[in-house]
Amino acid sequence: MTTANASSSSTNSPTNTVFGVPTGLLATAASLVLIGAFLAVVYDITNVVGRRDQFVLLAAGTLALATVVGWTLRPRYALALAVLIAAGGFAAYFLALPESQVALLSPERLLADTFALLSGLSALRLLSADVWALAVTPGPVFLAWYLAVRGRIAPAVAVAGSGLGLFVLTTDATGTLTLLGVGAGMAAVGFDGIDRFGSAGGQLDVLTVVLAAMVVLSATVTVLPGTGGSPVIPDEGVADQPTVEASLVSADDRISIVGSISLSPQVRFEVQSTSPDYWQTATFDRYTGDGWVRTGDTRDYEGGRLAGPDGPSRLVRQTVTPATPLDSMPAAWRPVAVSGAIENETLVTQQGNLRPDRAVEIGETYNVTSAVPQYTAASLRRTGTDYPDEIRERYLALPDSTSDRVRDRAAEITGDAETPYDKAVAVEEWLEANKEYSLRVSRPDGDIAESFLFEMDAGYCTYYASTMVVLLRSEGVPARFVTGYTTGERVGDDRYVVRGLDSHAWVEVYFEDTGWVRFDPTPAGPRQDAESTTLSDARTEGQTGVDTNETNVESNETEQPTTTANDTATPTENGSEPNGTPIDSNAPGPNIDERLGITPTGDGTTEEDEGGGLVPEVPSRETVFVGLVGLLGVVAGVRRTRLPAHLRFATAAYQRRTDSPADDVFRAYDRLELALERDYRPRRPGETVRAYLDSLSRVGVDERTRQVGRLYERAKYGDGVTRADADEAVAAANAVVRARLPLVRRWTD
């Protein structure tokens, strides 16, 4: 009998709905949206690392399995299955690690790596990011969807939200997906609450307020520092644009390619070197479509000699003296030894670059010995294509979203080239000849290289270098993206002054038995003119920090030109550089790069590209969305607190008498009804005053209040009221209303 009654009660209970849709169904759907946001983040990662198709199959299979299990297995068995799935995924990840990495594993290392991931280290930094992404997905997805299918919405949101939260902490989740996930999670919990406890008045308001608060907070509060930029080098320049230096040289382990950019003429450091060169700071191997990531970890420099190039080399010794604090260690490729003030605080990346463990302060001189590769065009042309596995895995990878037209264009450009060297030269020359150089560009949507190839007429070095790497990898030639500084201004036989405007990005191509060789596809002619003009304008304006004693030209009739080394490091057929210098001098390419796009004029203003100009900044769609959600939350919060009703009730504390006794009675009753509505319930449509007061008599409505009701009926429907009646009604209303406003009562006592 008990079971039957319970069943009958459950069957007859009304279903809560929002806009006619059952709230239970809405809660499950919102849970699926949250899981989808988590999957979308992992999808983006697997697209970059080349496992997109495998991930789609894995995700679909996991959701299908969770649906079936949700209908058949009890929670304890499903939880055990989820643990097995998660354990199997991580076991596969560890088995996929290279032996060199497995040898480094220890509890301390695992703890440090976990903390690094949770404090802003992108998952794309992991060497085996593809296997890791596939490993972390099935467990939480299976468990979250299983719980949602079973109607356990809150635990489902907790599991899926934790998965998404991990990628928020690693900075891999975009703002849009974070907003979507937060909104879906809160909606799922809110709809589930309405489904369980009803929506009588307040539940929907609470849901709206909490949802709006979470969306606004997730969009405006930065939990962890973002990537890119520099705490040392100011990220500022002309026209309020970010500087090239801060976005390239000082980017940490991830570079996002931006739109318009500016230059800094400030002196950064001086180099005393036995030979001029490019001063390299970082190398990036993983292309994401909108930027670059440096994979792998760093290790302490423990003294001694580091590994040199694969082939012949010569030693170049440099002494670097910072003029401003540096968060990088510029040096000629390839550094093999370090000494000086920062020696014991130097890190070595897996790509072979040097990094300081702290900022190198002004005057903290350090010494670097580099083994600079030696080669000729003929020697590079003779190299084969039997690349080591590590080179293939790291430096031939492209996102799965790379389009066929990019690969077709690469094949078209290199059509007559038979060797990797000839292909590199063909791509370099094609980019120099077919694209203009400008700093005034709009950041394109989608893949940077594809946009630069087919949609953009101009760009700066990051666009040129990124596109060259993508084209070469499409043709099976290992290449990587490199940042640093060009030579700078020569102030002596072996001394160079390097400014922020010398920051640059270029390309390195791998050749067997030689190693990494520099190529520079960015056009050099207009850059050198822009350097002279930019520096001249800075001096004319009296900017400080743009000169040293050696570069100060105030007493000279003409300005000293900056270094005018040859335009590219590409060797010629006879083994010498285009200017006739023997190749073992390894003369660097252009001494500046990021100087165009805004051409300074004589009056100190800038000449913008045709069609340029200042336009009002339109808020992004995300900003508008967050603003609207915040406004909706405020409205719901006001409703929930019943602030309008409270304000209306506060205004009822006093009543000014009029010449009409009837109007005074009507006003007195309205004030009383506000008090009754606040304490008990409002008068229903069609309910008479007498019926309303009678229904409240059992909860304590006194005779004085009922008398005001009778006076109201007499004034409205009877033979009217006298001034004495009106005074009686006003006095009764004053007593009732002011009793509910303690502050007013205190003032009137």
TrEMBL record:
Pfam families: DUF4129, Transglut_core. Residues 517-617 are annotated as: Disordered. Residues 548-574 have a biased composition (Low complexity). Residues 531-547, 575-584 have a biased composition (Polar residues). Keywords: Membrane, Transmembrane, Transmembrane helix. The chain crosses the membrane at residues 20-43, 55-73, 79-98, 132-148, 206-224. PANTHER family: PROTEIN-GLUTAMINE GAMMA-GLUTAMYLTRANSFERASE. This is Transglutaminase.
